[in-house]
Every structure is written in structure tokens, then in C-alpha cells.
Amino acid sequence: MKPVIALVGRPNVGKSTIFNRLTRSRDALVADYAGLTRDRIYGKVKEPGFDFILIDTGGLTDQTDNMSDLMRKQAKLAIDEADLILFIVDGRAGLMPTDSDVAQQLRNDGKPVCLVINKTEGERREIISAEFYALGLGEPQVISATQGRGIDSLLAEIKQRIPAVEKIEADEAEVFDENEIRLAVLGRPNVGKSTLINRLLGEERVVAFDEPGTTRDSIHIPFEKDGVNYTLIDTAGVRRRSKVSEKLEKFSVLKTLQALEDANVVMLVLDAHEGIVEQDLHLAGLIVESGRAVVIAVNKWDGLEKSEREWVTTNIERRLPFLNFAKTHFISALHGSGVGLLFKSVRQAFQSAMTKVPTSRLTRVLEDAIADHPPPLVRGRRIKFRYAHLGGKNPPRIIIHGNQTESTPNSYKRYLENTFREALKLQGTPVMIEFKTSDNPYRDKAIKSASQNTPQKKQRPPRKSRKS
């Protein structure tokens, strides 16, 4: 399980800037305005040798209005989830009374705390950190998130402070047991995930109740079906973070993200009566970002009129075009209709995600794709693709070598993805395309030869000055 780290501090100390810097994203809004972040924001940090989940929180204040109370509650939930707290303070503003109050609260919680002094542009480390030793939190990390100064030192400190961080070799691919399919069932609250799990297992294994939030944690259930070993992961429904207020639900989002990491096939459960809503799109985006194979199950299909079914089908095609590679099933988990066909699609998606294709086969597919639709010109020269090979699986990662490959437009990249998926008969899994530009071994020699062959201008002798 990946470690969890939370960013905590007063408003406008740069927590969101640090979040974006560490996650290499723009998921957190950044502006010179206090209180911009209100809900918890989750992100993944991947560094050579270790990775972790990072949580951005709203600013902690001593105000007593409703919004401040909600932000404090969200920050408290993040602290409870975290293995390490990064306590962010403002180096320009100096030590504030609220900083001392927050430090005392963190000491009471008993979680490991790393003090981080941000906004230290143009200041000496010794001078700016002197007054913050009064917080009693040990040696601070002095950084500038906007300039990236001190970030490497902060990451080294994080790696040292969390001994449970999973060590990952730089060239080590993610390993999965090819004899077991780990299937995570994801969806909003009350779309019928637990009912579907019970139907798949043929027994009342998990609690199913007509109330959102019945499932509080991720449940791993091993079983065998038609000679294939499965582990079903029933996850708590992901609702809007502003609505995650009950203490028992505080781990729902985090556990769902971790279940997504553990799985190699994901079943996205949708509610046919409600159609595609924003939270469905959010979950679908997380699945695509993780690169996991997908099967879509549209539940509560029974009882819908023909016009309603047509509306649901059209809505899925219109709002989930980025999951067009996934097989869609229309089912009723309560009555069992259509459920039996899910396992076939799950096995196909798993086999496609774990496929092994020789380099010669991939190169032939690439050559056929180029013959049908040549790559575009870049500065008067055509992009040249030489060969392709398999660089990983779950999902299949195809690496294409050639010249000027970094200039390949996204439209042509999507064309290659669809071509490989169709030629290799891959269903239910995304295909990742990576380009590598080959180095020209004669480039330096050609430059040196050209410089040697260039005629040198003869230097004129210095002109003698005339004597007056």
C-alpha cells in the first residue's frame, strides 16, 4: 500500500503550489488568494525509487464561520489518512500565532510532522528559518515552490522519513500474477456495486442496502470461476468530496484510489436510471489515467422503456468516447440478467492487457499503418518511424523508434493506437504509444568534418600606424 502524505498549514502559504510541483500537474488551483482550496485534493507523486499519494488541504484558520469549519474538518480527515504531515509555513510572513496553534494540534494528533518553510525567494536559509525553530518540530526544509528550489532536498527527506515506502527500481516493470485476475468494481454510491458482487459470487458476501455509503472500505474477495482465479475488490462509492463528511467515510476516496492501483481490470458500474453524471466522468478519468483494462456495466437496465434505453446508450457514446475500447454490458444485478456475460469480457480485457507481441509483428503493423496513412511533414521533412517493440504490459506499451518522433501530432498518435488495437485484436485495454528519436551516430563526425572543410579566412596583418 502506498504511503499517504498530507499538506497542512494556514491559507495562502503555497500548499497548492507545492502540490502541483510534486505531482507535476495543475490539479490544484493556484492564486494569490486565501482560502482558494477548500476540499481535499488527491494526487500521485512518482519519483525514482519511491512513490506516494499526496493530499492538498484547505487553509487552517482560527475563524468560526461555516466555511472555515468545513475546511478544518476536511484537513482533519486528511491528517487522519496520512502517514506523514508536511506542515507548510510562509517564510516571507514569518512565524504567525496561527502557525503555533496548528503545530500544537499536530503534536496532539501524534503523526510524524515535517516542517516546510515556503516562499523563501532571495533569502538566506539560516536567517529565514531561525524563528521557526520555536515551533519545536525539528530541522525545517527551506524551499521555494514557485522556483523549484529545495524540492529535491524535500523529497529526500520524505523518502527518509517514511521507511515503509515501496522501493521501485527505475527499470522494473509492474508485476502481476498472470494466473489471477484482480477485478475492482468502481462506481458512485448506490449504483448496485455490492449487489453485483453478490450476484457474481452467487452468495450474500457483502452488505447490500438501498442507502448511499453502505460500503465503507475496500473488500478483497478471492474466488474461482470456470478454472480461473479471481480477486474481486468491492470499493466504497466515490461521492463528491464536499459531501464526504461522516467520520466513517473519510477513507472512501483514498481506498478507491488504492484499489485502482491493486487491480488489473476495472469494472465501472453505471446507473441506467440516472445516466452519466459528473462523478462517473471523474471515475472514468481516474481509470484511464491508471491505464487499467475496463469493462463497463450499466446496471438497473430492467424496467426501462425503449426510448429511455436509446437515450442511455447515446449518452454513454457521447460522454465516454475515451472509453470506446471498453466492452459495455447492460445488466440487472438484482435479477441477474446479463451478469453471466461479464466474466467473458473481463477475461478478454485481462488477456489483452497482458498480451505479448514479438517485435517483428509490431513492426509489420507499424509499416502497414504508415503505408495506409503516412506521417505528416515537419519543417519540410517527413517523420520516419523505423520499428516498434513492446515495452510493457497492463496496459500494453508500444515503443516506436525513428527520426523526429517528438514532433508526432496527437491525432496521428491516436491513429496508431487504434491501428495497433484493431490489428492485434485488443479489447478492453488502452494502448500506450511512446516515441523515441534515434540518435545519429555520424552527427558529431559530420559537424566536425564540415567545420574542417570550411575555408578559413586569412587574417590580415596588423596595419602599421603612420607617424605624424
UniProtKB/TrEMBL annotation:
Region (Disordered): 437-468
Residues engaged in binding GTP 2: 187-194, 234-238, 299-302
Binding positions for GTP 1 per the UniProt entry: 9-16, 56-60, 118-121
SUPFAM superfamilies: P-loop containing nucleoside triphosphate hydrolases
Domain EngA-type G: 3-166, 181-354
InterPro entries on file: G_ENGA, GTP-bd, GTPase_Der, KH_dom-like, KH_dom-like_a/b, P-loop_NTPase, Small_GTP-bd
Compositional bias of kind Basic residues: 457-468
Keywords: GTP-binding, Nucleotide-binding, Repeat, Ribosome biogenesis
Pfam families recorded: KH_dom-like, MMR_HSR1
Superkingdom: Bacteria
Family: Belongs to the TRAFAC class TrmE-Era-EngA-EngB-Septin-like GTPase superfamily. EngA (Der) GTPase family.
Quaternary organization: Associates with the 50S ribosomal subunit.
NCBIfam families hit by this protein: GTPase_EngA (TIGR03594), small_GTP (TIGR00231)
Role according to the record: GTPase that plays an essential role in the late steps of ribosome biogenesis.
Protein name as annotated: GTPase Der
Source species: Methylophaga thalassica
Gene symbol of the encoding locus: engA
